[in-house]
Amino acid sequence: MPDVFSGAKTVRLGDLAWTRSGDKGSHANLGVVARDAMSYAFLEKYLTAELVQRFFAWTGVTRVERYLLANVGAINFVLYGALAGGAARSLRWDSQGKLFGTAAQELRIVLPDIPIASEESPP
Amino acid sequence: MVLRIANAAGFWGDDLQAARRLLAHAHVDFLTLEYLAELTMSILASQRARDPARGYATDFLEVLRSVVSYLHVAAGPRIITNAGGVHPVGCAQAAARILSDHGLDRMAIGCVTGDDLTGKIGELLAAGEPLAHLETGQPLVELKRPIVAAHVYLGAEPIVRALEQGADVVITGRVADASLTVAPAVRHYRWSWNDLDRLAGATVAGHLIECGAQVTGGYSVRWQEWDLDDIGYPIAEIAETGEVVITKPPESGGKVDRFSVIEQLVYEIDDPTRYITPDVIVDFTSVAVEDLGCDRVAVRGARGQTRPEHLKVALVYEDGFSSAAQLVVAGRGCLAKAQRCAELVVHRLQEAGCGPTEVHVEYWGAGEYLGQHQPPDPGELVLRIAVWDRRREIVERFTREVAPLITSGPAGIGGYASGRSPVRPVFAYWPTLVPRPWIEPHVEVRSAADWLVDHRQNP
After folding, report:
1. pLDDT tens string B431-459
2. ipTM score here?
3. What is the pLDDT of residues B199-248, one digit of tens each?
4. Dihedral of CA B429/B431/B434/B438: which sign?
5. DSSP H helical ranges for B329-435
6. Alpha-carbon gap, residue B387 to B108, rounded angstroms
7. SS3 B296
8. Does the CB of B269 have a partner CB in chain A at under 8 Å?
């Protein structure tokens, strides 16, 4: 699907991975589990901490740490400061960041010029 | 025979029927029930401050009653739970009453205490322990706020002791969630505390099942792919080697596949190379997962490092008051209308000299979960206004400022009948560390009948 603004082709994270989120102390975590090896290889390269931080910028996240679990094809992101004071103190309805996983399904990654798989249909 | 450990509660408020359903359809050696989220202890502590008999997770008693018939048989499961909260002895006595009422007077209940550091904070500070905030590094002396509760995360060791002394039911206060699963494995296989990879395997098992149905098809973006009715709660089959198979009762709803397991592996963790419990430090990146089919997934290869020298303490302090009010807003331009309502409320509060320190407004239905409030006009949404202030009266004033919108706000707003939003005290979380030598877990194992005798003597 072309990006509305730049016209670049993008892929939706939800088409490549399952996601789940929760609170860890005063921060949130986002677990990304690739659907297959090719998706993992793509996400390892392009689903950067910067991209995740930009997507969740509205939460006030101050830093994103990325951890790879290559054995199981998963990536863990820790979203520092994304809970507006932590699960206890946050004034958000979703004070525990339970919706972040579902939100991340809509994160779009701009496809690189060199096709990883088919440009028409994401892997 | 591999050891089969089930979990039928992932938090206080989880499905009360889960344990009974699980035991009706599967044989397990141990049933674990986990009730204590990070803040649950503060809720329990404030309950006990009002009534010394309270302070434990009462859901457990209901669950115990529902499964008591399975405890009559010799091969019935033993139960391990952290339902004790801030009052494990009270919980043990209440459980003893239930067992006794069902003719199980001789059943042994083990009670683990020693996690409560609330009364020890002054002593720790005086001894030069900074109790600094784990993330900010700020020393505790700078907090200057009333401390509600401080509990150290105990490990599997005192639970193992209780099992060694013959406990059929073990009730603890704050214990690392995974340790509820590690303890029976250590006891069953007589593992040493130096069997780090085995401890790591059991810890991964505990981490995977501690949130109940989240590993068996719950909390999944794939929720349409299976039946969530009668969802099966998880069973970890732990081998002597520390290898684990995650499964669920036959014929139950939900799903166990490699994705359900991996999603839970990366749930609420930070650095996966260092998953820290009082028992062992586990490297999750060494773990391999294999789908065996038929809702069975093998988890192998967990590597462990020596347990930490410091234990984590969950300290909770009072931090003002908050309240949140919701209204439904309908009609064309509902987003602008909702924004105007929020402005009106805040403005009226400020005019009265009662502006809260923090105001947070959300527009659910207008893209809130993505942080976007975008056209097209959603036509209807839920407006939610939340406030926080250190002063209770300011928050109370807010709760009285929403209803006047009925007559003095725009048309197309509903939901007033639910009344004023409640004012709730806010408990904030201060994670810190304490050196292990300060901590002395205490274990007491007695028959149900004995727990009741004591109860009468010391009501």
Report:
1. 999 999 999 999 999 999 999 985 554 44
2. 0.94
3. 999 999 999 999 999 999 999 999 999 999 999 999 999 999 999 999 99
4. positive
5. 334-351, 392-401, 405-408
6. 48
7. strand
8. yes
Question: How far is it, in rounded angstroms, from Cα A40 to Cα A17?
Answer: 8
CB within 8 Å of A60: residues ≥ 6 apart:
A81, A82, A84
Rounded to whole angstroms, the Cα distance separating B140 from B175 reads 23
Show Cβ contacts of residue B101 under 8 Å, excluding neighbours closer than 6 positions: none
- Spatial distance between the Cα atoms of B360 and B340, rounded to a whole number of angstroms: 14
How far is it, in rounded angstroms, from Cα B54 to Cα B94? 10
Rounded CA separation B76/B19 (Å): 13
Inform me whether the pLDDT recorded for A122 exceeds 70.
no
CB contact under 8 A, B38 and A19: no
> What's the CA angle centered on A84, arms A80 and A87, to 5 degrees?
85
Query: Considering only CB atoms, which chain B residues are within 8 Å of A86?
Result: 428-429
Burial, B284: exposed, middle or buried (Cβ in 10 Å; 0-12, 13-18, 19+)? buried
Please, what is the angle between helix B179-189 and helix B157-164, to 10°? 50
Pairwise CB contact (< 8 Å): A84 & B360: yes
Structure tokens at B356: 């809260």
- pLDDT on residue A114: 57
- Note whether A73 contacts B: Cβ–Cβ < 8 A: yes
pTM for the full predicted model = 0.94
Q: Residue B67 corresponds to which tokens in the numbers above?
A: 């499964």
CATH class given for the domain over B315-430: alpha beta
Inspect the interface and report whether the beta carbons of A87 and B429 lie closer than 8 Å: yes
Of the candidates B64, B308, B107, the one whose C-alpha atom is nearest the C-alpha of residue B203 is B308
pLDDT per residue over B270-287, tens digit each? 999 999 999 999 999 999
- Token pair in block for residue B132: 């600094």
DSSP symbols for B234-258: PEEEE-TTS-EEEE--TT-BS---H
Compute the radius of gyration of chain A from its Cα atoms. Answer: 15
- Distance between CA atoms of residues B374 and B368, nearest Å: 9
Please state the three-class secondary structure of B84-103 as a single string. Answer: CCCCHHHHHHHHHHHHHHCC
| Residue bearing tokens 């039946």 | B227
**Alpha helices (runs of H) in chain A, residue ranges in sequence order:** 37-46, 49-55, 86-89, 100-104
Which residue ranges make up each domain of chain B? Answer: 3-115+153-308, 315-430
What is the average per-residue pLDDT within A62-87? 93
Distance from CA of B449 to the nearest CA of A (A): 40
Confidence band, pLDDT 50/70/90 cuts, at residue B291 = very high
Beta strands in chain A (DSSP E): 10-12, 17-24, 27-34, 63-69, 74-80, 108-110
Cβ(B205)–Cβ(B244) below 8 Å: yes
Q: Max CA-CA distance within chain A?
A: 46
Q: In degrees to the nearest 10, what's the CA dihedral of B409, B415, B416, B417? A: 150
For residue B70, the 8-state DSSP code is: H
Chain position carrying tokens 């921060």:
A27
The token pair at A27 is 């921060």
